[in-house]
Amino acid sequence: MSLLGFFSNNIGIDLGTANTVIYADGKGIVLYEPSIVAIDTRTKRVIAVGREAKEMLGKTPESIQAIRPLRDGVITDFEATQVMLTYFIDRAIGGGIFRPKPRIIIGVPSGVTQVEKRAVIDAAKGAGAREVYLIPEPMAAAIGAGLPIEEPIGSMVVDIGGGTTEIAVISLAGIVVSNSIRVAGDEMTEAIIQYIKKKFHMFIGEQTGERIKIELGNAIYEEEEREMEIKGRDITGLPKTVRITSRDVVESLEDVISSIVNAIRITLERTPPELASDIAERGIVLAGGGSLLKNLNIRIEREIGIKTYYCDDPLTAVARGVGKILDQIDLIKRISME
Length: 338
What we know:
ATP-binding, MreB_MamK-like, cytoplasm, ATP binding, 12 helices, cell shape, about 25% strand
């Protein structure tokens, strides 16, 4: 074993719109933080990253801006992404001049352009990577879910993140059919915010919208109705409190869920018959934080007619997938996007 290998600090990263998850070789998941950076607009200095920055969302004075440097799974603010990655990598494997530069494998949406790919590679190299490989997120999620990706068997994975829903049919270590739509967990939150604005004439922030999604969100109508009290401000700018029900939330999410179900249907229609029959027999696997919406698997199963189930710990599936193959350079080269 080489000295470099002995001090292996290779890492796999799920660079998500909502959260960044890092898997360190030999250690497993070592970091799970929101993909948010807080910047002082006067000095352009970064003042907080991750969880600390998320707590500032919607609560900052004019001089401080809390931003998400990724939107819909791709980099929209290069400098902020590089600062965020550097901070997260140092947190995960330690900084210091004697630290060997890591090999980094990053899960990215399957629909990214060449320009978007280059931005991710440059940001990772700027953050200290020795070499960078990009793996399509659905492939990484399939590996993380323990699916037999190298066998001649059709596997379907639906990875619903914050910014994108990635759907892929995988066989023999290749993506046979894929579909990437920019509708996912963030759109669910936004749909709730807009519904409350329209129905109750009330403005709420992103964090309140997310809390409602987690507490009352559902992909189907259930007999037992739950409710919660939420606070925001009315159209005159004064504080306002209303009670909303789980029925309201299901109604608000209808268009987003229909878009996801429709994208799965379209992907299946484009799948070769032999692989489609494997999927009908083996089922559809859900991964990603957005898939954790209550009863989403039941809704997909009802509408598509194929057994749908969650992989273990959907939130970390992509990071665990890229982490599992860190030392399998031949497989990395076969499935990477470069």
